[in-house]
Write a structure and sequence with these properties.
The complex is a heterodimer.
Chain A (H helix, E strand, L loop, with lengths): L14 H9 L5 H22 L10 H8 L1 H33 L3 H12 L6 H12 L4 H8 L13 H25 L3 H9 L4 H29 L3 H7 L6 H10 L4 H31 L5
Helix pairs in contact in A: 2-13, 3-13, 4-8, 4-10, 6-11, 8-10, 8-11, 9-10, 10-13, 12-13
Chain B lengths: L20 E10 L2 E11 L4 E6 L5 H9 L6 E6 L2 E2 L11 E3 L11 H11 L4 H14 L15 H13 L5 E5 L7 H18 L2 E6 L2 H7 L2 E6 L2 E6 L1 H6 L4 H6 L3 E4 L1 H7 E2 L11 E5 L3 E2 L10 E12 L4 E7 L4 E6 L15 E6 L5 E3 L3
Parallel strand pairs in B: 3-8, 3-9, 6-7, 7-8
Antiparallel strand pairs in B: 1-2, 1-4, 4-5, 9-10, 11-13, 12-15, 13-19, 14-18, 15-16, 15-18, 16-17
Classes of the chains: A mainly alpha, B alpha+beta.
Chain lengths: ~300, ~375
């Protein structure tokens, strides 16, 4: 999770304090410079490009188009919907799995974690095509279902939102699991015993003690998956087969087909703002979680 | 060695409040390691029993078996005659205090204490009233709205205690509840827990590795070793009349003399035992450098003084016996006229209190 250094609220900083600040952080300068040059500058450049029209004059036309044209709104809607569905799938599949894995003894835990992390080493492209092999019209699944006589005609499994969300969930699940399992594993087992000793059933203990204490990890995983899903390109392109238009695909098309930097920059900036909004919201939520109950 | 359970001294006026617990031949093994070696124990109604043992002696396992978190291989547990050996932990209705308090960090103090009442579907107004009463019992009612992480160690311990008693359990199990506190706070809490027990009369099993704590707090002390009980007796008895050398040395400072050494260095005491007979045990505070006034015929030994250190309530006197062994005693009294003349290397007479002489089996 991104955490910014706490700004000194009693600004302005005296000059010697500023020098002290800089001198004290010489060691992190190379990293800061790299981030500045390769992340911050391009972002600012992106913003700059987005407010220029084709002739190079300052203009709001790129943003006006985003608002006026319904197709853009639809693309944003689809992107958010697909990301949301991916998050939902990760939650539904991931929470029970993580709860189980977190309680495993060390050796079994190590094995399962290796299995969880293993897919991260395979290429996105390969995994998308693998799903295609399974899901397409005369793919494995349809063939089997027909052989067993369960269906007469092949089901439309590939090249739609279902396939896209399936593929994205497959990719994002390990990323959801990592912070979730880590939070669940750090829940003190004595708390669960204490709950049971007071008369709580296993389910009650899980819901009132285990889950609330794992919430920070679940939230981190959720935000991570959602934000990363917003920028997916390869998986929707292959498994959506052109039927699932997401933001990144629109940006790519603007660039490759129309080489319109202004238009694609504007989409990028809006996406960036959306991501920041999501992060800000999650930060607020986390703060509520950790300090909301304090009354003194 | 196995001891028969001696007669019980439950607190007067308390019998009948808590329930009795009967543990019979409880056995638990992990692989080849025997953690509980056919342990039997009876807790009378309202009794406060402390289990004392080193780490790995099986005391915590026994407590967890009683709480329902460890399934024993064999043996049985009965609560007022009812078999609860296989009853799950959440059906036992015991109060359990864990070593690290196990307070829920995502709840306030009050919510922590309300938790067991909510599980019992106590209506909210009544639950709050009872929770506040429990908090008042541990003198923390002013902190009800605090979050757990804003509490000190001592306060957490009190909250855990309030949470364990708020639903009026018939049995209270405590797993080294004071081990994380500093010494003065620990002693204060020992007295408070003792008083609380007298007030509530809950049958209590208290596990500790601190011998002083066990002696202070309990009606009876059970010394555990390698998965079995060495001795179960009231505090004074187990301290003054330990049944084995192990118990003698585990509780307080014991000086043991084998029959040969007795014959060699002790005077005033007829030799009663063969050379492989029981050991004579003396507490270090039952030896001093002037005669005991109540002893007409003194038992003495002569030793070389190595060092003498004033410690306020006593002198720590280091001695070398005639056999070459070095011992340390806590003399309550040293002849004050001779104190300046006592110097290392000097020979001196040590008086053993006659009624403190006690023989223990070898172990």
């Amino acid at each position: 999770m991104v955490s910014l250094p706490a700004p000194d609220s009693r600004a302005p900083l005296a000059l010697h304090r500023l020098t002290g600040f800089v001198l004290g952080r010489i060691g992190v300068m190379p990293a800061l410079l790299t981030v500045g040059v390769f992340v911050l500058l391009p972002c600012l450049w992106l913003v700059w490009l987005s407010v220029l029209d084709r002739s190079g004059a300052l203009s709001g036309e790129n943003y006006a188009r985003l608002i006026e044209q319904a197709s853009y709104r639809r693309i944003f809607l689809i992107t958010f919907r697909v990301s949301f569905e991916t998050v939902l799938c990760c939650l539904v599949l991931g929470i029970p799995f993580a709860s189980y894995v977190a309680k495993l003894p060390p050796r079994a835990f190590g094995l399962v974690m290796a299995a969880v992390l293993f897919p991260l080493w395979t290429s996105l492209l390969v995994r998308a095509y693998a799903w295609l092999v399974i899901l397409q019209r005369n793919g494995l699944l349809n063939t089997w279902l027909q052989d067993w006589g369960l269906i007469d005609a092949p089901l439309p499994l590939a090249f739609n939102e279902f396939a896209t969300v399936l593929g994205m969930t497959h990719i994002m699940l390990p990323i959801f699991l990592l912070p979730t399992i880590s939070a669940m594993r750090s829940v003190d087992g004595n708390l669960l015993k204490a709950s049971e000793s007071m008369g709580a059933s296993g389910l009650r203990t899980y819901l009132s003690v285990f889950l609330p204490l794992s919430l920070s990890g679940i939230l981190a995983g959720t935000i991570l998956v959602f934000v990363m899903s917003l920028g997916f390109y390869v998986t929707p392109a292959i498994l959506g087969g052109g039927n699932v238009q997401v933001i990144s695909m629109r940006i790519a098309r603007s660039l490759s087909t129309y080489s319109n930097f202004g238009a694609s920059s504007a989409i990028g900036v809006v996406l960036l703002i959306c991501v920041f909004a999501v992060l800000g919201l999650s930060l607020l939520l986390r703060r509520r979680l950790s300090g909301g109950k304090e009354t003194k | 060695m196995k001891m028969d359970t001696p007669s019980i001294h439950p607190h007067p006026g308390l019998a009948g409040v808590g329930k009795s617990v009967e543990i019979t031949a409880l056995r638990k093994t992990y692989g080849k390691h025997v953690v509980l070696d056919d342990v039997s124990l009876t807790l009378q109604r309202g009794e406060f029993l402390a289990i004392l043992g080193a780490s790995g002696s099986g005391k915590s396992t026994l407590l967890m078996a009683l709480a329902g978190f460890v399934e024993a291989d064999s043996g049985s547990i009965r609560l007022d005659g009812r078999d609860i050996t296989h009853l799950p932990a959440n059906k036992r209705g015991f109060g359990v205090m864990f070593q690290n308090y196990a307070l829920f960090p995502h709840m306030t103090v009050l919510e922590n204490i309300l938790y067991p009442l909510k599980l019992r579907r106590v209506p909210r107004p009544e639950a709050v009233e009872r929770a506040m009463a429990a908090l008042a019992t541990v003198k923390l009612d002013h902190l009800a709205a605090r979050r757990i992480d804003a509490l000190s160690g001592g306060q957490r311990q009190r909250v855990a205690l309030a949470r364990a008693i708020v639903y009026e359990p018939e049995i209270l199990l405590m797993d080294e509840p004071l081990s994380a506190l500093d010494k003065s706070l620990r002693e204060e809490m020992q007295i408070e827990i003792r008083e609380l027990h007298e007030k509530l009369g809950i049958t209590t099993l208290y596990v500790t590795h601190d011998q002083r704590e066990a002696l202070t707090i309990a009606d009876r002390v059970a010394v555990m070793r390698d998965g079995r009980f060495e001795q179960i007796a009231p505090p004074e008895e187990i301290y003054r009349r330990p049944s084995s050398a192990f118990v003698a040395e585990f509780l307080g400072e014991a000086i043991l003399f084998d029959p040969e050494e007795q014959a060699q260095i002790l005077s005033g005491l007829p030799a009663e035992h063969d050379s492989d007979g029981p050991l004579l045990m003396m507490r270090s505070e039952d030896m001093q450098l002037v005669p005991w006034v109540e002893d007409a015929a003194p038992v003495t030994l002569t030793a070389e003084l190595r060092d003498i250190v004033f410690q306020g309530d006593s002198w720590l006197v280091k001695l070398r016996l005639g056999t070459g062994r070095e011992i340390a005693i806590r003399a309550q009294r040293v002849s004050s006229s001779r104190i300046e003349t006592l110097a290392p290397g000097q020979s001196c007479t040590v008086y053993l209190r006659r009624d403190a002489l006690h023989y223990v089996g070898r172990s």
